[in-house]
Amino acid sequence: xxxxxxxxxxxxxxxxxxxxxxxxxxxxxxxxxxxxxxxxxxxxxxxxxxxxxxxxxxxxxxxxxxx
Length: 67
Prior knowledge:
mainly beta
């Protein structure tokens, strides 16, 4: 999962964790440097790679951060 500002600047890159057979992603509101991001809207993009026959798929959502 990658997070970007609405201007397209990269904020954070997170790996999917598998817990008890479920895949989970959690974002603590920090950038890759460990600093809390300012409140606002961010773009979340998930890229899922499958086998060669299915290729990969991307899904994007807007996430609101508020403190």
